[in-house]
Every structure is written in structure tokens, then in C-alpha cells.
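Problem statement: downstream parser choked on a complex file, so we are re-checking the raw output for the adenosine-5'-triphosphate run. The parser issue turned out to be on our end (a line-ending mismatch), but while we're here, posting the original submission so the record is complete.
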Amino acid sequence: MTTGTQAFSQLRLEGVSRRFGSQDALSDLDLTIEAGEFIALLGPSGCGKSTALNCLAGLLPLTGGSIWQDERRIDTLPPERRGFGMVFQNYALFPHMSVRANIAFGLRMRRLPKDEIRGRTEEAVRLVRLEEHANKLPGQLSGGQQQRVAIARAVVLEPSLVLMDEPLSNLDAKLRLEMRTEIRRLHQSLGLTTVYVTHDQEEALSLADRLVVLRAGRVQQVGSPQELHTRPVNWHVADFMGFRNLWPMRSQASPEDLIAVEADGIRLVGDPVGPVAPGDEVIVAVRPEDVRVDEPGATTNTFAAEIEVVEYQGRELAAEARTAAGLRVHVRTDKRVAPGDRVTLSIPAQRLLVFPSDSDERPATGPAGQADAMVEEPGLVG
Ligand code: ATP
């Protein structure tokens, strides 16, 4: 199967905006998508992901900005003239038609020759591995199989761009993983260009070449999975990328390139992200897996805590520890800790990110004042 009936080399969103009444659901989205890329739009509920996708699809008119396929402006075209394929979370299959007829439907609407319809449909059935089920009705299929029909129905039309809105959210955990691989396989083997909406950071990181993180209708960061994982640009993105420990602290004069932070007598050192001056209020972000437990010889950012809650997670444990003064620390460790254990925690300075505290907003996981109660004296390096 070849793709790209209306092949393009670049799709550009320029200042794309959408208002609903007085609310900006999407503000000034600038994004250039290269042909062949897999882009994930990621962010919490209500951040504007679906709005962005629907603007691209032509299902929602823009209230500002423009969309270009190379030199051709397309935001003024109706959905059917954009030539995009769409896959949504409710598969919207025709219940009275067989799998094969569902997949062939769009080709029939285009009044293509019968032989071509048959050939392309069979190829699409094979691609999504539904040969044994092609004569069944959708109601006789599992959720994952139905989702494969929806995907086949979209790609059989050889769209220049495939838009997917949370396509796996109705599936159970195991199927989600399987279909994730399937979607990436199809994207690669068909040379598709895909824009994929999800609120699941793990799904986005594993699927996409580039991620666009949205918050309250605005782009926070665009980058590769690795960039977003290791270097979020602000604490909101960090929060979304799995930095579960977010502690409000105050910065101090820094040793070398690092920055020292403190709250009520406790000092830690970390890596500043963005402008942080001595005396500023900051948000410290640490991933649970970067908090070490009873590490022999650890001297950086060490402090005592007591393990309170432990969750079994296969080879590792997810634990919640608390210092004597009440700071809550999320930990992920392969050490066999148990509630009541007194441990020494440590955090490598490069894994402790220090962000400017941008507004009066505070991280939900670290209410203001939580860190103030800390009494342990950490060891300092540098
Ligand atoms: P979710 O993950 O929950 O689907 P989302 O990131 O896709 O969320 P959108 O559906 O794009 O978010 O919505 C963005 C904002 O725009 C929300 O605050 C939402 O309430 C608002 N919104 C979306 N559609 C409409 C509409 N038709 N009329 C009014 N407000 C809307």
C-alpha cells in the first residue's frame, strides 16, 4: 500500500487558536510537522489536545491562525477535502456491516473500480492481521480487534496525515500495549505521518518522534521523548513527565554550576533549569527512581526518613517516605523496604532539577509549607 494521496513535505500550524466564548481552548499553536513524523499531543484533561486535533481535521473552524500543507493553505477546506484519516476512541464502526465492508466503505464512497477496492481492502485486512475475522460483524470482535478495523478503515484511504484521538483509551492494559506496538509498526511500514492525542505520558514517550506538551491551551514544550524525559522546561512539564516529588523551596548562592536550595534549615543542591537567582522561591523536582535508599557512601543531598507506605511493582517497590519534619518523598527502589523502616535517602545533584516558581500556583504534590518543616541536615557536596 502506498500512502499520501496528497503527499506533502511539511504541515505547518501558524498561530492556530480556538476560542469558545471567552475561553481560549487553544492559543497560538505554532508547529511544523515533517512528513513521516509521529507527533504526540500530550497534556492533562482540558488542556486543548482534542481541540488542536479537531482544528487540524477541519471539524472545528479556527478563530485565529492558519494551517499550511507546504504552500497550500488548508484550514479553509472542509474535512473531506483535506484527505486526512481519523481514528477516535469510540471506533464508530457500522455495526451491520462486516469487517471487510467497514474497511471498504470509504473506497466505495470514492467510487473506485471494484478490483481496486477489493485489492486495497484485502491488503488493509492483512496489514492489521484480521484475515480470520474479515467476515464477522464488529459486535463479534474484541475491543482491540475493533480498534484495528478502525485503523484499517483510516489507512486504506492512503491519507496524507492520520489523526488519532486517544484511540487506545477503551482497551485494557494488556491490549493497549499490544495495539501501541501495532500502531507504531503501521506508522513505520506505511510511511504515515501521524498526530496522536493522549494524556498518557508513557504512551506518548514510547510512540512519538516528537511530543508537544500543552497546558491550558498553550504549548509548554516541544521535543524528543528523551528531551522531555530528562530536561522538562518548567515544573508543570516535569510534573506531567513523572517528577512526582515537587517541593517548594528557596534558592541560595550556588556552588559552581549547581544551585543550593533550602527550606527551614535543610539545604540541597541541584541543577537549575531557567533563571533562578539567590533568594528566589523555587520548585524542586525529583523523579522517584532518582531517590536512592541507603546507598553506601552517598554524600550528596542525604537525609533521614521513615518508610510509610510500600506498593509492590514487580522488581521494584514504590514507596512513600516521610522525614521527621513531615516532607513526603516518593521513592522507587529495588531495595526490600517495609513500612516503619528508617532509611537514609540521597539524590544525585544532577537529578534534582530546580525550577523558577512561576506564579502563585503550587504543585499539588508539595503544598506550600510542606518543606518548611524539614529538620534533617543533608550532606552537601561542592
Ligand atoms: P480531554 O483529555 O479531557 O479530552 P483535551 O485536552 O482534549 O481534554 P479539549 O477537549 O481540547 O481538551 O478542551 C479544551 C478546553 O476547551 C476545555 O476547557 C473544554 O472545556 C473547552 N471546550 C472544548 N470543546 C468545547 C465546546 N464545544 N464548547 C465550549 N468549550 C469547549
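For whoever reads this later: The mean pLDDT is 88.
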